[in-house]
Inverse folding.
């Protein structure tokens, strides 16, 4: 071994391979060379990668000319007996089970005898009336309390919704009406938070970067002739297969609706496809394997009744159920065979 180098990242890796002159990576965060055995004295970029993190608010607040509302979240099993709230003209003091949660001095005075508080599904709200009408420029007097976020018509309550109610996602509106119901969301729609990049890291430390923002990593597909594995990412509902070359991603194939289908498989464990991209396969933790073949042309004309669009091909799918219930440990695909490995058996499924 002539040389050892180390690449570091504060996120995970979805794909790793070697092209002709680069280390090719699909990484969630920035990557840097943190060590080089041939140049130990050189100043490498070893400092921690600084990620800008917004401070999580301890509470949220909303105001009108006359009224003030503050709310915050506790564990759902918290009962009213654990909560102790005191409000005076200038100070609010909130304790949960004897521990200080929120304490500070108001920006202006409130009416000390007209405040109330409520508690519902882990959300505690305190309603107060201002002693002197008018809009406050801040909640605390000269940073005299923990960080909070003001909720206006242009912002929203960003706390995790499952800590507040079972279904609705609240916006901080005093009416407590939900903006929409969480049951109406589908997991297949939740891909816009994918922030990975595809990075080519050269020997000299230079990088070429392609953003994969919004494109979920689905799988890597082994190719022949010593080529780097192909990368399959989600684009809308489909799965796009990208061939990895030096400083280049080339689209070579599409798996129709694969992105949508895999998102609905909550128990999925592995995904794979053969080097000719003739089908894709998804397996559960145990027993079930789902095979999705590429669409094939049809002889007779077929139209969509609603849109009138002609259907050029039909894609077949197949479900395979294994005899035993052992955990599936691996899956590998060839154009004609699909291999499944469990603890005590290897299954060979013929693809015809």
């Amino acid at each position: 071994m002539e040389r050892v180098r180390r690449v570091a990242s504060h996120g995970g890796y979805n794909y790793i391979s070697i092209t002709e002159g680069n280390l090719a990576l699909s990484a969630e965060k920035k990557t840097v060379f943190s060590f080089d055995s041939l140049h130990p004295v050189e100043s490498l970029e070893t400092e921690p990668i600084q990620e800008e993190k917004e401070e999580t608010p301890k509470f949220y607040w909303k105001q009108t000319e006359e009224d003030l509302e503050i709310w915050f979240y506790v564990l759902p099993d918290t009962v009213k007996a654990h909560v102790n709230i005191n409000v005076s003209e200038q100070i609010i003091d909130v304790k949960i089970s004897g521990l200080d949660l929120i304490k500070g001095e108001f920006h202006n005075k409130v009416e000390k005898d007209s405040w109330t508080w409520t508690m519902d599904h882990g959300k505690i709200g305190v309603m107060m009336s201002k002693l002197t009408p008018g809009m406050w420029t801040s909640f605390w007097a000269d940073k005299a309390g923990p960080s909070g976020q003001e909720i206006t018509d242009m912002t929203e309550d960003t706390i995790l919704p499952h800590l507040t109610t079972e279904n609705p996602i609240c916006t901080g509106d005093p009416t407590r009406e939900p903006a929409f119901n969480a049951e109406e969301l589908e997991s297949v729609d939740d891909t816009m938070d994918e922030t990975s990049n595809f990075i080519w890291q050269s020997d000299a430390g230079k990088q070429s970067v392609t953003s994969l923002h919004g494109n979920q990593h689905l799988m890597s597909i082994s190719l022949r002739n010593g080529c780097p594995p192909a990368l399959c990412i989600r684009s809308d509902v489909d799965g796009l297969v990208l061939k990895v070359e030096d400083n280049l991603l080339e689209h070579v194939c599409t798996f129709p609706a694969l992105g949508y289908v895999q998102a609905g498989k909550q128990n999925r464990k592995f995904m794979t496809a053969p080097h000719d991209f003739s089908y894709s396969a998804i397996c559960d933790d145990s027993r079930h394997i789902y095979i999705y073949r590429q669409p094939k042309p049809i002889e007779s004309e077929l139209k969509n009744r609603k849109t009138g669009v002609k259907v050029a091909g039909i894609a077949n799918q197949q479900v395979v159920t294994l005899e035993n219930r052992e955990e599936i440990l691996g899956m590998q695909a060839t154009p004609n065979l699909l291999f499944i490995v469990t603890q005590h058996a290897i299954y060979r499924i013929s693809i015809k």
Notes: The longest helix spans residues 258-263. Helices lie at 258-263. Residues 59-158 form a domain with the Immunoglobulin-like fold (CATH 2.60.40.790).
